[in-house]
Design a protein that fits this description.
The chain is of the alpha/beta class and about 425 residues long. About 45% of the residues lie in helices and about 10% in strands. The chain has helices spanning about 10-20, 25-40, 50-65, 110-115, 155-160, 175-185, 215-225, 250, 255-270, 285-310, 320-330, 330-355, 385-390, 420-430, and strands at about 80, 120-125, 165-170, 185-190, 210-215, 240-245, 275-280, 360-365, 395-400, 405-410. The longest helix has 30 residues, at about 285-310.
Length: about 425
């Protein structure tokens, strides 16, 4: 087991802005930690001159903002970035063997926003090939023989191993919430479309969503203040009405983590929260949602990769190539139907929540702790419906399994109400 350290984003950013933590010394401390742990974890794309680059950029940043009172909110924070985002002076490979030149583009909107807020780019994180299901060699910092999760796992592992207090990822199905749960950190996925994805290699554009990993909710909220477009001030309601989706949805969760989840629900009730159970859809409807989401994923993936695949088919790994071939063989009307169904499902789900006064759904983040092995990254059943609907989600660490592995608790908010979700779950995390 790799012992993790604490470096919460909000506190660390305040110390760096005020000069209470010297930036140069802290960057050296981070690089020393990476040098010591990275051979075992593999969360970062290798970079020969990382320390030198960070120290140079850190000096330039300090020269630009000598007065602590003028420093931007993320001054000096080194952010780990999933390797789908274009970063000036760093290659993009999207976890693949394809030539990096074909992914070259202007710097991603997310990176520009982070740098404008004073952040440094720690480096690119390892990921599943094209964010699908061929994993990298990244290992879980809590148990090196176990997966760290889905395609954003390198970003989650970087935060769990205390390389950085903030890492950026994307979620198409479960790639923020799953890795956050497995690695014992906070993972936030924004409402689909709230953070522009310009400058990122897509998987399925109708589903792809930006998210981030931090060590606590205060850090997730600070990152949201920088990255969310069209900010919506949170409302005044102190205690939201919570709902658990009953029926088949929870039947997929393993016995031990399900018992832990119900203990969490009882603690929430003990803290004064109203938690109701709702049969939100029939089993057949739920199956249809999963099928539509998968159809949309592979259909749009094939559209994205059509030209690249025709040129570099032999460079794709097996499961990625199979998905693209499946999408290429799919009738176009199937993709259009799945895309239209996404909006219908979101509308029905929002109407269901509004009619019953539900502010947040609460569920397990995954069916259990991180499984043994690195070939399979976990199952997306706990996240797929919310991803298909494009709703904002956050996973926070819950109890641990009998083996001492992290378990996560997922909260899902209404579309576009990301700020409410983060504020409410921040209070909930304190009460737990």
């Amino acid at each position: 087991m790799i012992l993790t350290g604490a470096s919460p984003l909000a506190d660390t950013a305040a110390q760096l802005r005020q000069g209470d933590r010297p930036l140069s010394a802290w960057l050296d401390e981070i690089c020393d930690r990476i040098d010591a742990l990275e051979p075992q974890i593999g969360a970062l794309v290798p970079e020969a001159s990382r320390r030198q680059r960070l120290q140079t950029e850190g000096r330039q940043l300090t020269e630009r903002y000598p007065d602590p009172s003028s420093r931007p909110p993320l001054f000096g924070i080194p952010v780990a970035v999933k390797d789908v985002f274009a970063v000036d002076d760093l290659p993009t490979r999207a976890g693949s063997r394809l030539p990096s030149a074909i992914f070259r583009s202007p710097q991603a909107h997310v990176i520009t926003a982070l740098r404008r807020a004073g952040a440094l780019v720690l480096g690119k994180t390892t990921m599943d090939e094209f964010a699908y299901c061929e994993p990298s060699a990244c290992r879980n910092p809590h148990a090196l023989d176990r997966t760290p999760g889905g395609s954003s796992a390198g970003s989650a592992a970087a935060v769990a191993a205390a390389y950085t207090p903030l890492a950026i990822g994307t979620q198409t199905s479960r790639s923020i919430i799953g890795p956050a749960a497995f690695c014992g950190v906070v993972g936030f996925k924004a409402s689909q479309g709230r953070v522009p994805l310009t400058g990122a290699v897509p998987l399925a554009p109708s589903l792809d969503t930006v998210g981030w990993f931090t060590q606590d909710l205060a850090g997730a909220a600070l990152a949201a203040s920088v990255l969310l477009s069209d900010a919506h001030p949170p409302g005044d309601l102190d205690k939201p009405l919570l709902a658990v989706p009953s029926g088949r949805f929870l039947s997929w969760v393993d016995a031990e983590p399900l018992a832990a989840f119900w203990r969490t629900v009882e603690r929430l009730r003990g803290a004064g929260y109203q938690v109701e159970e709702h049969a939100w859809m029939g089993d057949d409807d739920l199956e249809q949602v999963y099928e539509s989401a998968l159809r949309l994923t592979v259909g749009e993936m094939a559209e994205v990769h059509k030209v690249w695949f025709s040129l570099y088919e032999n460079q794709y790994r097996e499961r990625t190539a199979m998905a693209i071939r499946k999408g290429l063989a799919m009738p176009p009307e199937d993709v259009l139907s799945a895309r239209a169904g996404q909006i219908v499902f979101r509308t029905l789900l929002e109407q269901f929540m509004a009619a019953r006064g539900i502010h947040l759904w609460v569920t397990p983040s995954s069916r259990g702790p991180a499984p043994v092995g690195l070939e399979l990254t976990g199952w997306g059943g706990m996240t797929m419906p919310w991803s298909y609907a494009g709703l904002p989600c956050v996973s926070i660490p819950g109890e641990r399994s009998t083996e001492g592995l992290p378990l996560g608790v997922q909260f899902v908010g209404r579309y576009g109400r990301d700020e409410d979700l983060l504020r409410w779950v921040g209070a909930i995390a304190e009460s737990l």
